Amino acid sequence: MAQQAAPSMGRRRGRSAKAPLTSQSIVDAALGLIRERGVDAVALRQVADQVETGPASLYAYFASREVLLEHVLDAAYAQVQLVDIDDGGLGWREALAETIVNTIETLARYPGLGSVALGTIPVLPGALRLAEHELSLMEAGGITAERAALAVDLIAQFAASSAIERTVRPNGNRGDGEREQVRAAYENADPERFPRIRERAALLTSPDDQARRTFAIRVLIDGIDRSAS
Predict the structure, then answer these.
(1) What is the pTM of this model?
(2) 221, burial (CB in 10 Å: exposed 0-12, middle 13-18, buried 19+)
(3) How far is residue 175's CA from residue 206's CA, in Å, rounded to a whole number?
(4) Where is this region: Disordered (predicted)?
(5) pLDDT tens digits, residue range 142-179?
(6) Dihedral angle sign, alpha carbons of residues 122, 40, 27, 113
(7) Rounded to whole angstroms, how far apart are CA atoms 111 and 170?
(8) Can you tell me the distance from the alpha carbon of 198 to that of 179, in angstroms, rounded to the nearest whole number?
């Protein structure tokens, strides 16, 4: 009778081979954890667990948690959908506005990553890709190089802070109950000290998050555009 072959010792039965450890696999694992738990809740040990290694192994790819987060942020920037002038017959202003919205939405998918963006000077390819696109749109709009350079920085700050706000208020718009409380506080404000607040209580509390964001982006781009003249 033929002798039964011994099971391979290279892999346990029922367990797939471990994927090779790479910088990309580490970044992908960190992105997944941040999306699920937020930046503050993610430690190197948790990331290491996701890629089935020890925390010390990560230092061969990233010198610290801060360096890893810079690469994670850049991977998020690389996900931003860029909107071109030719898309749907859009002009440079509309294309830039939609690109800004896409940047905010991408960062907001990873709670806390906006805070990393505010504390980081972007030098990696994902961020450079985004900045290059914004610069090309503004160049098409006749914005001077000096003004466009300042605008890129301002846009990055606006997108990051807007994403942070989304993280602080993950459910989006304020609920009707909270809105009514704020409106009542404005309406009952001291009439001698805050007459305009009382008078415009409804106007101050009626816009939803989308309306506020649309207005802010329009004001931002209007300011950039006027600087071209």
Answers:
(1) 0.84
(2) buried
(3) 11
(4) 1-20
(5) 999 999 999 999 999 999 999 998 877 655 455 567 88
(6) negative
(7) 9
(8) 15
Q: What sign for the dihedral angle of Cα 190, 195, 199, 205? A: negative
Q: For residue 134, give both structure tokens.
A: 């914004």
Q: Which two tokens stand for residue 110?
A: 């990873």
pLDDT tens readout for residues 127-152: 999 999 999 999 999 999 999 999 99
Helix (DSSP H) and strand (DSSP E) numbers for the chain: 12, 0
Give the whole-angstrom CA distance, residue 139 versus residue 225.
11
Query: Positive or negative, the Cα torsion across 225, 150, 122, 106?
Result: negative
Yes or no: say if 146 and 138 are a contact pair by the CB < 8 Å rule: no
Q: How many CB atoms lie within 10 A of CB 61?
A: 16
- From CA 228, how far away is CA 140, in angstroms rounded? 11
What letter represents residue 222's amino acid? D
DSSP 162-194: HHHHHHHSTT-SPPHHHHHHHHHHHHTS-TTT-
Specify whether the CB–CB gap between 38 and 167 falls below 8 A: yes
Cα separation of 67 and 28, whole Å?
Answer: 14
Neighbours of 174 (CB within 10 A): 15
Tell me the longest C-alpha to C-alpha distance in the chain.
Answer: 103
